[in-house]
Every structure is written in C-alpha cells, then in structure tokens.
Amino acid sequence: MMRQSWNPLYALAGGSSLVVALLILLLPTGRQPFSSVGPSADKLFLYCAAGLRAPTERVARQYEQEYGVQVDLQYGGSNTLLSQIEVGGVGDLYLAADAAYIELAQQKQLAREAIPVATMHPVVAVAVGNPKGIHGIADLWRDDVAVALANPDQAAVGKLLRNQLTATRQWQLLRDAVRKRGVFKPTVGDVANDVKLGSVDAGVLWDAVAAQYPELETVVCGELNDGQVNIEIAVLSSTKQPTAALHFARYLAAQDRGLETFGELGYEPVDGDPWEHRPELTLFAGVVNRRALEPIVEGFAAREGADVVTVYNGCGILTAQMKTLEADASDGFPDAFMACDTHYMDVVSDFFPEPANVSNTRIVMVVEKGNPKRILRLEDLAKPGVRLALGQPQQCTIGVLSRRLLEHVGLYERLLNANVVTQTTSSALLIPSVLTGGADVALVYETDVQAERERLGVIPIESELAKAVQPFGVAAGSNHRRLSRRLLDAIGRSQDQFEAAGFNWLYDDLAP
Fold first, then answer.
1. CB-based contacts of 298: which residues, under 8 Å, 6+ apart?
2. Which of 78, 116, 348, 374 is the most buried (most CB within 10 A)?
3. The CATH number fitting domain 122-224, selected from 2.60.120.920, 2.70.50.80, 3.40.190.10, 3.30.1540.10
4. Res 37: pLDDT
C-alpha cells in the first residue's frame, strides 16, 4: 500500500489490526497471519540449486511453521533448473548458485525481482587426511588421481571452474584427466558424495558445501582464489502469486531469518534487510517526479506487500528536513530520495552514496496563449512591464536552476529587482500564476506543462543549463536498502511511464 500523509484513521485501523494479530498469535498453531501481505498462498514452488539444499530446506521448514505456507523444492544444477523453467513455464521462485543465471533468466524475461543472499568460493575437496597428497590444481591430472567435477553445462561450480582455468589452458588438462580417470556429475552434491564415498580422490566443490561434510577437508589452490559467485533468489515471471513469492524471498534473504541459517552452514551472507512481515519504506521525492513516479510506487507497494510512505515537496525543503532529522537523530529519515535535479542530491551526498540518474526534463518559459508579450528568448524577460514568476531558490530545485540559468546570462539580479512578481516552492505552483493572469511568464519544467498545453504557450530555452536531471539514491543508513534498491529496479523498468509524462530517459545508460 502506498501512503503519502498521516491520517488519524490509520491509527484506529492499525490498533484494530494489532488486536486481531495478537489474538491470532495466541492460537495454538503459533502461526502468524499471512493474508495481509496480499493474495493468500498455501504453497510455493522453488527451483533450488543443489549446492544450496541444506540451508534452503531448513529455511523453508521454518517459514512453513511461521506462516503456514508449504514451499516445495526442486533441486538440480543451476543451468539445468533454468532450462526447466524455460521449458516448463511454471513455478514461483528460482534460487541459483550464481547470479549470472539470474541475470540470464531476467534477460529471457523468465524472472523479475532478484535479491542477493550470500557468496561462495570453489575449493578442492579430498578425504580427511588427504591420502593422495593433493596440494594444487596440477595434482588433479596426475595419473594416480581420480577426480569428480560438476558438469559445466549443468552446474554453476563447473562453469566457474571452466572459466577460471581456461585462460591458463589448465581446463583442457583437467577435463581430459576427468574423462580418462574420473567422472562429470550433474550437481555439486553428487561430486561431494563421490569424494565422501571414496569413488574418487578429489572433487571441486563450493567451500560452503564442503564444510557440510565432516568426512572431507579442503585444499587451498591459488588458481581458485579469485573465484567467487553471488547467490541470488528471483521471483519468476510465471508465478501467479508474486506478492507471496516476494514474501518468502525477503524472508530467505533477511539478516535475522534465512541469512542466519546460511551463515551457520558455512555460506557468507550478504548484508540483508532485517525481516519485517510487512515492511514500511519512506521515500522523499521532488515534486517534479510525482506525475511519473506515483503510479510506479503504488504498483511496487502492492506487488511487494509493503507500505511506501511518499513525501513530495520542493527539494530544498526536503533536504533541509533530512539534515534536521539526521542532526537530531530523529525517526523519519527517508530510506530513498528521488531529487528534481542532481544539485539537491549533491547537497545530501553523504547520506545517499552512488545515486543513479533516471531521467531529465527541460526548463521552458510558459506564457499566455498567443504570447501577447512576444517573449521569445531569456533577454525578453527584462522588457519593461513583463511580470515574471520564478521558483524560490532556497526551497526548490526549479528556483536554484532558474537562478543559475539567469545568472549565466547576467539577468538574475536585474529581473529580481524589476520583473519578478512571485516566487513559489515548486514548478507546478508556477503554472497557475500564468493561467490566472498573475504573471506573464514563468520558468517551469516542461513536464509540468503537459496538462495545460492547450491553454498555454511553451517557449524553449536554448541553453545546456536549461535542464534538470532526476537522480535516485538509497540511504546508506537505511534498514531497507535491498527493498529500496528493488524500488529503483521497478523505476528502471518504467521508461514508458516517464516518457509519457514528458521526461527523457537516462537510466539504461547511467544506472550503476
């Protein structure tokens, strides 16, 4: 659900909901209510990489106990599972041992949201005591050593190993040795079992998988030191219950739920969001973004089963509010900020590292229909009797950018003293001053004129300074960094909405 302001009715509704929730929690089952996150779900289907079986089974059972939702698991090599997803066209979630498979699934439009989980590294595993004296990769193609490897066309660890060794031509030596004296297996778990049973002398596993076998020990190999994969879970495009699927994905990737289990079993968890049954995200946004941003945020909140509290205002006001909240250590600091221009993102750059530029819009002059004052260029704003409306530079981005533009042509102080009749806190508020005859001309964002083009004249400004770039940043101190990043991803899939609102699209080129 998307919210933009506080309403006392919310407090009453929230109190009632809390009572209901507490009553349910007192029931003998101990399960928490699930229906409030969106469409109810009794069962989810998850494709799970074989190397992630142990933690995923445990998390799935924990989730079922807590929320009453059964999670059915299908195991296999990451690439094998991706092929099954593509052919079958069914399922809710995909947990891959390498994020490269998630990216491929997204490119094929088989998956939507992706959430990071943990990292793994490849290691050589041998029986305890290392009876064959294996100390490096070169020992794996000795004539007295039998090796098991995961098939690189099926499993992520095999693919990574092939990529790591191909550049030094060691892959061909190892591949040929396996073909002669060893075996290729479909999953990393199969490799681990072969080494455990003594069917082979060594195998290449993920470090976290090897740690789950007390019968095995690992050998440090310099050739594998740079190898690392990122584990991610993705919501499949085939799901008919995306909100329920996201609920489980957030649970598995939460620092105090699923990631605890992954850490206990030897994986390296990422810095995940803390678990919240229904998270609440606070977004500050400059007013110019509202026309395009509002429906996107609303759709995102509904799909995620989250609340997004959106505060729209002039960016000067918003950044001043942020600084006050930070200085006072008060609640309410935003999880994310979408500014009207990079100027105001720079003002709070300490709070929002590495913002992504999403779009831009031109600054134009709007006049009465027919342009009775014959205003054609910036210099015409200084004509005697021309009444000018500008944004207030201490409160909004349009004010800052208009001042910069007019100072560049040497007009600002002159206009401020003779022609400016009103200053407002946003571009949108400047439009009525021209419509009602209170001003002859105003400098506004082109996007804000969309709804009134039939009643106004629009005069372009030939200057590189007549442009505002809209960046989106995630707060470094937010407890919802992963959720905020998914909101940015949702915005990044919304080029059509931004262009329909009059913006020019930048995100594909400039997103980090």
1. 2, 308
2. 78
3. 3.40.190.10
4. 44
